Amino acid sequence: MLSITKSLLLISIMTTFLTIEIAAGEEAERGAAWECHIIDQSSRGADGVKLFDADRDGLLDITTGWEEGGITRIYRNPGPAQVKSAWPLVTIGNTPQVEDAAWIDLERLNVRKAVVSCCEGKTRAIYVHWPPVVKPFENPWKQEVLPASKDRMMWMFAVPAKIGLDSRGGEELVAAGKGPGAEIGWFLPTADPRDLSKYKWITLSQAGWIMSLFAVDMDGDGDQDLLTTDRKGKLRGCRWLENPGPPIAIMGKQWKNHWVGGQGREVMFADLADLDQDGLQDILVVTRAPDEVLWFRRLDASGQKWEKQVIPYPDHTGGGKGVAAGDLNGDGLLDLVLSCEHAEPPKSGVVWMRGTRKGDQFHWEPQEISGPRGIKYDRIELLDLDADGDLDVLSCEERDQKKGLGVFWYENPLK
């Protein structure tokens, strides 16, 4: 028995050393991890980052919901000189089980934006956080529940959109959920957009578990359609809903569904980018089992013709979660940043794929960003936070050392 125990111990030690060697080899191949700057790590379960210049100083600020912490916050971008330190913040609401927070001009004044918080679990509600008239990082915000959202579904995602009321200015609130009764739809306001009791829910499509929503003109007819990724249920995959235009758009009829691809796959976050630089906007969709990016190359302006290419996740990373496209190294070609969940050490949770091209052939070379730190990452934003001329990586993480890394950014070292 002692001999068997020693043998098992030896196997365990050898496996550990092998894992370390593989991780070291990957680091040598991929390069060193980028420096991580924490914006806020003082709550639990940071879940998504959305951008808007709230104080009109020319710098993009952030809103984030903290799921386990049950709060929604906004963060003031302090500018390049202080951007590597913790950012000034305001807690604008108590939002139990918040899954997403988004900026939106519900007041239709074109001068400031409210924040909406989508809550799942037992909360099953959307909260609206009204901004003060001036100085959003100094004066108090007002929180109200959106009555038409209460107990309708577990809310997962929201985006501002122009559905069919453009003459009134402002933006409409499009939202979607997961689980029993999940739908994609929008909230029709009345003449007084501050009177939330009068908002009416308009269903556009059934849903399973919505991961992404984009308000974008998919067919070139001048109005905004809705592009989505749905990871569960009969409608899982990547598809878009065609805006029929007013007045049909506001009559409560479901919009026509158009498939892009990925039917039957567990699709995660998506991004829009002209990856092959042919003048047409493509769609990038992360999928699980296997973990890969589905690159749907747009073949014409109709939104009906797509060519699929597959970009596998590199070895020794976690499960696929998010993707963003941008030129990270300044060579004129778009690269990819990939985020992961289930990235237990020594796996990497965030990497970038250096894009190269020879004719119509594309090659993607994995490069390190996060290293083994972090487990469950979220969606990604690419922007130049330190004003050094290259794109940095903004995201959040909610499982590192049980608390999570919070809201943070990785400093691009390539310039």
Automatic annotation (TrEMBL):
Membrane-traversing stretches: none
Listed Pfam families: FG-GAP_3 (PF13517)
PANTHER family: PROPROTEIN CONVERTASE P
InterPro entries named among the record's database cross-references: FG-GAP (IPR013517), Integrin_alpha_N (IPR028994)
Domain of life: Bacteria
Keyword tRNA processing (UniProt): no
Gene3D superfamilies noted in UniProt: Integrin alpha, N-terminal
Record keywords: Signal
Species: Gimesia algae
Protein's name according to its UniProt entry: FG-GAP repeat protein
